[in-house]
């Protein structure tokens, strides 16, 4: 009986919280507050790109719905025999709507299943990954999915991967 009561309480609390979200918009303000804090300079803009981990494919910039990502030219870095990285992304916080498309479509995350080098809030801890080794890693996603991701990139990832 006690269990049933607890269950009912959890259920009702869940309903109430969802109604609050729908009717009063509660829980939607976190991103807006964060955005305003960044824009007003109250908090320091978090690090959003791990440059060492990025392969400069431009996928994030191509997929961003608000064109918040600009690719910045860098001193070219040879990553593999077939590929030189010559740009990295920069997020414009004023245009970002925190949809996370950049993060989710980044091939480092979506193809290789590693920590994404891009995140609209904060990439968190630095992770040491050798990108040239990463590009040799066996990939385990469907042909259809990799074709979709490759169509978003400005580099020929399939060629770099040796048509895997
Ligand atoms: S999270 Fe921001 S930067 Fe990333 S795709 Fe969405 S709008 Fe663009
Ligand atoms: S999609 Fe990922 S690897 Fe490609 S440029 Fe953006 S952050 Fe770098």
TrEMBL record:
<dbReference type="GO" id="GO:0046872">
    <property type="term" value="F:metal ion binding"/>
</dbReference>
<dbReference type="Pfam" id="PF12838">
    <property type="entry name" value="Fer4_7"/>
</dbReference>
<protein>
    <submittedName>
        <fullName>4Fe-4S ferredoxin iron-sulfur binding domain protein</fullName>
    </submittedName>
</protein>
<keyword id="KW-0479">Metal-binding</keyword>
<dbReference type="InterPro" id="IPR017896">
    <property type="entry name" value="4Fe4S_Fe-S-bd"/>
</dbReference>
<dbReference type="GO" id="GO:0016491">
    <property type="term" value="F:oxidoreductase activity"/>
</dbReference>
<dbReference type="InterPro" id="IPR050572">
    <property type="entry name" value="Fe-S_Ferredoxin"/>
</dbReference>
<keyword id="KW-0004">4Fe-4S</keyword>
<keyword id="KW-0408">Iron</keyword>
<dbReference type="InterPro" id="IPR017900">
    <property type="entry name" value="4Fe4S_Fe_S_CS"/>
</dbReference>
<feature type="domain" description="4Fe-4S ferredoxin-type">
    <location>
        <begin position="45"/>
        <end position="74"/>
    </location>
</feature>
<dbReference type="GO" id="GO:0051539">
    <property type="term" value="F:4 iron, 4 sulfur cluster binding"/>
</dbReference>
<keyword id="KW-0411">Iron-sulfur</keyword>
<feature type="domain" description="4Fe-4S ferredoxin-type">
    <location>
        <begin position="87"/>
        <end position="117"/>
    </location>
</feature>
